[in-house]
Amino acid sequence: MTKNIPHCSTPTKNGVWLHTCSEDFLLSSISNELTEKERKIIISAFQNALTVFTNIKKTIHTIPKKPCFIQGLYFLNEEEMAKVLNSIKGMEQTASFNPIKAYAGAPDVMNLHFFYDILGISMNKLAYLKSYLFRYMRVIQCLSKQSERDTFGILTCIVGYDSMVEKAVTTFTYITVTGATKEKFIKINCDHDCIDESDYSFNVVKFNYSL
Question: Does residue 159 sit in helix, strand or coil?
Answer without folding.
Answer: strand
